[in-house]
Here is the input.
Amino acid sequence: MLAIGGLWTAASLAQTEVTNAVPPGATNAVSTNATTLDKIDAEARDLKAGDVLRFSVDQDPATAKLIQLVDVTAAGEALFPVTKESDRYVKLNARGKKLAELRKEVKALLDADYYNDCTVKIDLEQIRSDPSVANPENSSKVTVFGVTSGSVLIREGETKTLTDLILGLGQLGPRAKLTEVRIRRMDPATKREVITEHDVKKLLKEGDRSKDPVLKDGDRVEIPERTLNF
Here is the structure.
């Protein structure tokens, strides 16, 4: 294993301009139409294309102390510079991962060839999407099927419950069996579909938000059709 100090001398570091050290996929500037993060739990959120990350390594020998910002590209990749004053970087897929998972993977790559037990800091800096526009690239999608079909986009920072979705669909008519609405969700650990059944009619009547399930990206909501006897 090579220590980071063995790769670049202090003189060569001092001669390198930080603005020229940013690899493809990294940036020292942020988009002007970035979403504010006040309503977003950055640690619980899955990273998406267009996200901007704040990145640093405590043991970085670079003399300049500029903030290093890294883009998640349209392909979902992120390039993390080995040091702020070098064109060397480690690349990995960031889309769909949590920040904690990304920190662990970047640390492993850096420790493998450049550092010895480095401390990696990665945080969500900004999201490149307009919160007033439902952008499929930065939105969660819920699929609806059964008595009606379609899909609903949930914008960044927005919380949508099951009753929110049902009310947003408008009049479903007497054929919709709202007492047995099912949410079909894939368990990321077991890769198996978990089905929960909800009495939306009761939820709407009682108005107890604590029992109203919050929808997640990839959920499939089944609204069964009632059998009508004539």
